[in-house]
Amino acid sequence: MGQLSIFVDESGDFGEYSTHSPYYIITMIFHDQSKDIQANINHLNNSLENMGFGKDFAIHTEPIIRREEIYENMNPNERRAILSKLFYFVMKSEISYKTFLFEKRQFDDLLRLEGRMAKEMSLFIRENIEYFQTFDEVILYYDNGQRNLNRILNSVLFTELSKYDVRKVSPKDYKLFQVADLICTLQLLNVKHKKKELSKSELLIFHNPKDLKKQFLKPIQKKEFKGFK
């Protein structure tokens, strides 16, 4: 018995369907606190410091791809190197993830979309309830970035779990929250890869569709949540 941390991030918004925002993606990162990943965190921090970033630096995937914010003057290989460091941290750490992807044009209105989100997350927990019940405490970490999602998460956990706690987070304080952001983006890229809709900015970072799939999309599947082993 122990503590399970769940870090949640999202990609997309609750607005109407548009070509610029066709999906809503939610990623949950699961970390059994008995599995120590501090050495991996220290290694990642040291690698980033060697690149000139301070201890409060938070990796935010989409601005890296779009060359925004502090990444504006970095070349594609420099930006890819940052993403790669976070990606390898994921692959080396004893964590797992579950992603929920919703195509917004399938829903007539916001209530139907919210209802589907709640239904799928509830079903996931029910199907894996034995796993969640092995922990004395489940803690949800979310930055309250979107009120709709915050409400759905709390409603689902309150209904499905006998006991849980909530912590508001800042991305700079938790590497696993940054991991949730990364995996949301990779899941979106996976959809775009299948539909052959990768943008020029994305191809600059990942070189070509084949490399993206081989070096990122296929390996990350090893970290998908599988419940009891």
Describe the structure.
- This protein is α/β, with parallel strands linked by helices.
- It is about 50% helix and about 15% strand.
- It has helices at about 40-50, 60-65, 75-90, 110-125, 130, 145-160, 175-195, 200-205, 210-220, and strands at about 5-10, 25-30, 95-105, 135-140, 165-170.
- Strands 3-2-1-4-5 form a 5-stranded mixed sheet, with helices on both faces.
- β4 (about 135-140), α6 (about 145-160) and β5 form a beta-alpha-beta unit.
- α1 packs antiparallel against α3 (about 75-90), α4 packs parallel to α6 (about 145-160) and α7 (about 175-195) crosses α9 (about 210-220).
- It starts with a strand and ends in a 9-residue tail after the last helix.
| Main sheet makeup | 5 strands, mixed
Beta-strand segment tally:
5
Structural class: alpha/beta
Please report the distance between the alpha carbons of the first and last residues.
Answer: 16 Å
The percent of residues in helical segments reads 40-55%
Give the helix tally.
9
Mean pLDDT: 92
Can you write the helix and strand succession as a string?
Answer: EEHHHEHHEHEHHH
Q: State the low-pLDDT regions, or none.
A: none
Oligomeric state of the chains? Answer: single chain
